Batch of 2 targets.
Target 1
Amino acid sequence: MRIYQSEIRIKTKKSYDFIDITEKVENEVRKSKIDNGIIFLNSLHNTACMIIQENDETIFEDMKKLFDRILPLNEKYNHSYEGSLNATAHLKSNLLSQSLTLPIKNGKIVLGTWQRIIFVELFEPREREVFITIMGE
Amino acid sequence: MRIYQSEIRIKTKKSYDFIDITEKVENEVRKSKIDNGIIFLNSLHNTACMIIQENDETIFEDMKKLFDRILPLNEKYNHSYEGSLNATAHLKSNLLSQSLTLPIKNGKIVLGTWQRIIFVELFEPREREVFITIMGE
Amino acid sequence: MRIYQSEIRIKTKKSYDFIDITEKVENEVRKSKIDNGIIFLNSLHNTACMIIQENDETIFEDMKKLFDRILPLNEKYNHSYEGSLNATAHLKSNLLSQSLTLPIKNGKIVLGTWQRIIFVELFEPREREVFITIMGE
């Protein structure tokens, strides 16, 4: 049983940037040379997160609309010093997920047919970091 | 330290089918012969997920009402080609959780008194798969 | 590769008590003597959970407002025998997260600059338990 640790960097370009990082993450699995085990992904941010989802723009548009409905940007927020987009991004990342755990089997990440690893920028264009841990053999 | 991998299958019968899979999952722990460690459960779907919750129909009814309020089915969704139930199921599974990690101690899954592992069908009757990984000794 | 298991206890004082347990959890990492690996935190409750967030009261106030909007306390809930605060706490803990997984590197939990481990009481003052598992070397 071994542990592999690394970091990947993601340059986001806008709010609600949904970036498919599956290949980037699979590349870390290859580098780890771990064939069976678990990969842990941790976003080191409170306003950017990760989801498992189909890489389909229409789903991402629906997610934005959902958040606009339950966390309207023209509302007054207490965490106001960086604006409503920032205030609501903090809450959205807790409603979604700042970390993912996915199985690895025969050197590949086990995902359903339509599942991809999507990094989600909830605030504004940034250089983001995801910490990677792979445990297995 | 060892790794055990398997899959369980769940036949869902309707939308908002809340199925207590605790015993099915405990059976995998027994088969793994791992006494102390972690069990990882990963739903291989974007419209079906898992929660830790009391197995109580009234809570599940309240959850349905919550989703009907924040994701009304008579709303227009961009991801429309399989209908509103499908479009909203994609978002609900990201708001809930497609994966669970639970501790194992002395051969048993550590759960609070009222906690059960509940598989949640968010779309329509389907044959669903949960990938199981158990790591420990 | 080793496994360390323990439990921490948290005394909550009110509904929406947001308690920074980062130091308490770091203390467990020190006790485990595991330098590189993963720490798993599992809340053994359905009405109390954990989030990764900035320890900032204004964010917690905004979270309360969000929940008051989507899960109003003056609404009628089916899970009614302990009142609306209890009924909605069950749903809030599924929308947030009853478990966290965080990497450990060089004996320290890897967190972003503004990330803290926050325990969230969603029901009423209670003695709460978080099960800790640390795996690594």
Target 2
Amino acid sequence: MLRIPLADLTTTIHQALLNLGLSNDRAALSARLIAETDLDGVHTHGIARLPRFAEMVRNNAIDLLATPTTTTTFGALERWDGHRGPGNLAAHAAMSRAISLAKTHGLGAVALGNTTHWQRGGTYGWQAAEAGCAALCWTNTLPNLPPWGATTPALGNNPLILAIPNAQSPIVLDIAMSQFSYGTLASYAARGQQLPVPGGYDGSGNLTTDPATIERTQRALPIGFWKGSGLSFTLDVLAAMLSGGHATHQLTTDPLQEVGLSQIFLAIAPTSLATIEELTTIATGAIDSLHSATPIDPTNPPRYPGEATLRTRAENLRLGIPVDESQWQKVLALAS
Amino acid sequence: MLRIPLADLTTTIHQALLNLGLSNDRAALSARLIAETDLDGVHTHGIARLPRFAEMVRNNAIDLLATPTTTTTFGALERWDGHRGPGNLAAHAAMSRAISLAKTHGLGAVALGNTTHWQRGGTYGWQAAEAGCAALCWTNTLPNLPPWGATTPALGNNPLILAIPNAQSPIVLDIAMSQFSYGTLASYAARGQQLPVPGGYDGSGNLTTDPATIERTQRALPIGFWKGSGLSFTLDVLAAMLSGGHATHQLTTDPLQEVGLSQIFLAIAPTSLATIEELTTIATGAIDSLHSATPIDPTNPPRYPGEATLRTRAENLRLGIPVDESQWQKVLALAS
């Protein structure tokens, strides 16, 4: 495992994106978002996805030059068309607009249709929190999750992000609707480990903690069983309805053609109602209470969403960002 | 099990609320909301809660005469104080205002602090959907759920409701953040049944499907393990921050003193962006796709959130609402 300084990682990604044909400013922003994903330890969604992005540019699934346009506006609500441009840039622009709407109207939302993979969803939660806004955002995905009561994938694992600004300790939750992603299942299987909790069904319809079995049955488990199944469905329909884009069932199951996604970016400005001091007192009280719950393992007390990310970020800024050698070679090849 | 016609149930609840001292109009609205909860088959949150409501009026935890007031407004966002009035009436007024804000601004939200138990959360989702709006709403609760990694309750099971308008088939999701409520655990235990999926931990820290064991350990499971734990925490902090009210850790664990709750009511008007026809096509396509997933049990295909409710509602309108005999006697006593 290499350790690459943030500046070097960012510069190399920037060059790779320039080589693909992205303009300088857009390549710089995209490179920052990708590098910060690895900086925060979310290695599944950082440079690991860059080769697939390049391939989807080359196969014309992603239109590198497309930027989102506004289709309809009504007060603090807007509908955008992403024109299958780079998904992280469209998502960043949509959240930026939602934040601006929230600062004018107290809250605001952009529904973005016809877009492409936004890479790390948490990126847009951190973006809102750092701008002083709370946020809810979510995306649909290709069908990869059976609904409760069925054996075939008809739902997406539709990541949902909630973010709350809180001085130097924002609360940022980034959860997919499946208990484990296929990426996580593959990691456990490669290490020969069982999952810590049941993650899906075996061929006989019994819950299992064996990752390879779930990869085979393709019957991953929604969070909370019927509850996550219903939540995934509802998020999908609402995103498609507001954006006028596709719902999960209209998306291909070919990951290299995963385009036409629908996403919601909703921001709320708490400082339109209260002082920073009042807001900080509330968040600090809740965090202190969480930390004082009796831990199962005293060396590993309960954490609030985002807490571990900040620790990882600080460590990686100090030591350099851990990068898989073979992934790094692929990024260097794209940048050369 | 008795079957009581909706009109009779409503009239009897109305009289009980008049006897407690509620004004005629407010008693009529509250009676409708409570009766419709039993009509929809959510018997844990309908007349079953009326004796506790009466007791909380008598012990002055609920101020029967209080109505919510607006504390702060900014654009499409408002902060209200519920003054510990009847929680269902305050919640209905807050969602009504959020709907009105959404029709003006595309979306709108009311953050309601210092309120009391809203009874069935789904009520406000149906209210929005029937008014043509999508909605997200949630409440915090007293601490009844251990955070992930802890053994003591520091989170609430904070119900989250998502609603989507869709002609005669709205999509309404109403989920608490615990896999099973204590009410549900008690029902399974009373019938001597095991839970269909793990619902908490036994005394050795192993997952269990035995409801009585979880009642004893008080270690119920959040939906999705660490994911529901993080979601519950984030919903709580955001509700307290926006409403200026209490977070879960500030609430007493005595159910007869469960006051000072914080709630969010957020409505979105899809028809500000699209025609009803376009919206209906999207929802219908997603529902049809869900219904066509291969069922585990062909007699019980996957359902969308709210689908079973509509069937129950139709049956109970036809046959009368099933009412537990002993609960009915308590309502009659309050109405006499």
